[in-house]
Amino acid sequence: MLEVNNLSLSFTQYQRGLKQKNIQVISDLSLSIQEGEILAVVGSSGSGKSLLAHAILGILPKNASLSGRLYYGGQELTAKRQKELRGKEIAFIPQSVNFLDPLMQIGQQVRTSSQVGSEKGIAKGKGGEKEKDRDRDREKGRVKDRAKDKGREKQRKIFDRYELDYDVENYYPFQISGGMARRVLVASAVVGGPKLIIADEPTPGLHHEVVKEALGHLRELADEGTAIMLITHDIATALEVADRIAVFYAGTIVEIAWASEFTDHGDKLRHPYTKALWMALPQNGFLPILGRQPSPSEPPPGCLFQPRCSLSSKSSSTNNSSCSQEAPVMRELRSGKVRCHFAT
Amino acid sequence: MPFCDLKLKIFFFRYGKGPWILEDYDLELKSGEVVGLSGPSGIGKSTLARILAGYVLPYKGSVRLQGKDLPRKGFNPVQLVFQHPEKAVNPRWQLEKTLNEGWTPDEELLESLGIEKAWLKRWPNELSGGELQRFCVARALSPATRFLIADEMTTMLDAITQAQLWHAVLERAEKNNMAVLVISHDGPLLERLCHRIIDFTRTNH
Question: Has residue B3 been placed in a domain?
Fold first, then answer.
């Protein structure tokens, strides 16, 4: 469905006067998502995960420079295709409820997304007869009304699905609760019938029940065949719904593991960072490790995790030197992927 | 370190003319204890934290430290650490200045929190949230601090950084005989850290 190959992302920033600085945010990142699957991308806040979402949607700011390749549905995802598909086949559930337009009624907001989705996206996708029919209708000048009715019908259907009262149509965002606002965000993403949904931290600072509900919505959509990329810093949340977990560290993905492998002492996991992350959860060992994540702009030589790695310091000196000299590449291991010289 | 207690008595609070969000509430914290506070969003947990630290005053009722009002001047023995460090540090100060504003943290503390020397000369926008939060924790852990209120202190951080910060905080709290109030949604975290947990939904109304 979606494939990201060797993606790197950096920003050019002015430092002082005309002096410019290049800031690396994502380096050499690869992943793929299949239909009907939830892939969670887990990493700490401010580490550039959201920018990965923005890169896929093609909504990065101008001073960003991107390398690597994106494929969607087998074809390369160019800037032009991104523009055509986003909001239709590729939908976005944003992090904050502030993404709702404060001056537009809820019903209208959801309808706007549904119209964008149905009129152009589907017609373009299917082409042929339907489009011709539609052209004829347009000449008669009736299409507007019909689209309007259709939009409302669709919106009401989606309201039913997410248990939103029809009264809510006329409310403004400030009049609804946080949990309801989250449902509205999901509704506007889903109403156009997307094939790929990118959800960016859909559950920050929410109470457990609300989180469960939001995640339940995602699982349901995946079971209907939608591919979902769930971006989050909370590994416990991710494990509740995701099929696979991609672990983000210092600007790249160090391991892609199955959610079912996060058990006991993490013996089934591949990368030493993933194991450390798992064992640092309060419900597991609550064990910290020393040091901190390096900034992707100033990476350590060799492996990104080497300065904190237990595997590297334990192994013999020859092994150790390869960790600090040569950056490992992503390789297949036990039906998952890992970026480590010594993982077994 | 002398024993201390912080008492919060029956009080009322609301923002402007909004609904009353805290009514009839009692809370007592004693030196050396770690207390958890959980409850759904919007129930007034953060407001309670702000009242305890003296940032806002309740309409009725009081916050008493050893039977006296909180000091209006000088170092506040009740220190509050927020969820978003980006909003809690002066963006125009280098971190060295922020760190040393209230007291000068010792090397040992900086090391246990994983603060690197090079960061002291940086500006806040050059560090990540996790890195900044380490500074916010360090500056609050002065020996003069009697109570630390951690309002979703590690919610935005990854599990490893979370474990790292809490180990450092608990060690220091024990050493200084400090009380810690942990406000969080994370049940397992509260279970792990706290001597007792207050469920705000039930006690409040």
Answer: no
